[in-house]
Amino acid sequence: MKKLLSIILALQVFFIIAGFSMEITEVFTAKGKFFESESKFIEFYNNSTNSFDVSQISLIIYTNKNSYVKIKLEKGSINTDIPDLKSFSTIIFPFDTCVVISRKYTNTSELLPFSSNCMILHPESETLWNDSWQNKLYKIEIHINEKLDFSTPELHFEYPDDLPYSFSIASNKVIRSGLSPGNPSLCYIFSSNLIVQPNEKVNLTAKLASGEKKITIKTTKTFYRDEIPLSKNGDLYTTSWIIPYGLKNGENIILEFREARLILRFIDFHENSIFYDKIFINELVGDPVIDYSGGNWTGMDGGGTINSTDDWVELLNISQESINLSNFYFLERTKNGENIKKFPTRTNTTMERNEKFFLSNGFIIVTPEDGIAENGLLYLFDGHPYKGGKVVDSVEYGKDFDGDGIFLSSLKSTSIDDEALARVIQGTSHLEKKRIFKKTKATFAMENSPEKGILIYNFTNNLLEIFVADKSISNEILTLSLINSIDREVLPCFKTNFYFYGNLLVKENDTTQLNKTLSVKNGITTLICYTNNYEMVSENFTYLKDGWEISTTSTNLSKVVIFPNPLQGEKSLKIANLPVETEIYCINEKGYIIRKEVAKKDFIVWEENFQKGIYTIVFRYNGEKVSKKLIVY
Q: Which DSSP symbol is given to 59?
């Protein structure tokens, strides 16, 4: 009798599942760098001719064979620009496709390509919903009126290279596919990169229904429109597309083909925040030699284990306002790709823990999530980098990740004396970072001025600017001497932020001997110096006239010259001392290559209508790379 009863119960379960009303068709666990946890979803399809109230449906999410969480559902509340998307509804009609997703999801800033006519639902309990995803998913069941209606097979998810895959479920199989929430078919458009920049090549793979094989492209702000044809490649279709210039930072690019849809996000890393020139990445420690966390973030050694939680970045605020950092992010670019990182506050100028408000003219110590790579390009963003955030500051170190040939020392340290990579001229951005960042002993939430002083000059437009950072000088005025064979000048420099600054005009063969005007001649060297509490600090400034006579034979890039520099009104830029077959690139302030050429002789002239600004001229020859700044005014 018991055996007969067991057979009857087993048959009942079989018929319930075999004749199911609901069918789970897609699961997305929000793995990878493009999505936050609020983007995870479960899609199911009403495969019957019956309508159901949301209150009748529950999801049973198994985290292992014996443990599960029961998720009750409620109507969705997402406002979207997707045509006919069903939200704020409690009735699931026949053949409806439903997507269960957190109510914290914000469609306007995320990248999920919802299909038209799908229905959005939310879990009643956000806590249970989040708990159910903490461990590996084992299987998911749909219950209608507390009775089993559908069960997935055991779920095994693999994410090669952290790519943005979801998983479709069909014929009792789990199939890795592209994202297609709200589309119960197996059609999709897939790209390994969802965050794109100008002139970037995007490779696309599509699984589509029959019909004309073209993908339509449109943007949400600039109203760009395009079509790209697809080529058959086995069971899939493939194509590539070059991201155009002129799109707006943070806008979405929508690719569509009938029921398949993909969203890309256009990002311009050259668009600066209102806090640019106000907040600086001031000091980095990525290979600490002491236990900062064990020392309770006082700058002292706690004596314990050293790991990535002891890495830190010091930020400097030179504005006249306190700034809330709660919506700031780091974007770290390394050989392994890009990572978005929030950062806990360790301490600030007043040594207050967990304080997100950044005091005026103050320092704050933070640790990016999972620490800092020893070689990388670190951006500080105001706003999420993939959602229209804007650049506040950036520092490149160890390797050339952006291809401009300019980068700083690695964060790798050998002792406490070179533990930090620090900005020694603090609070200014128009000097090359390679000149103002030095490997040094960490200063930790205080100014980075060297004990024995550093002097840096900048010469543009016949103006000689001088910057001095010296912790040993307590006065507000520092007097410099400038001495050459035909002139001698005294220059007072005044303290601003954390350095002394002064400037004077430079004139060739000036006989007036005016104060704050340095007389020079072609090739003359001027000694710039002062004496502090320890020694004399000095630099040599050599004046070279535009178009001076130079050698025209070279086998490397060390003697390449561009002139006149700065350019003022001229349309001719002369480039001399080039090794033949040198590759030359001219890059504007937005990072766009506006001209490129391979040198066929050692002296060339560019007839170019340069707009005002600062350009980078990159030279590449025989594995060597050199960059020079060109100023046009």
A: E
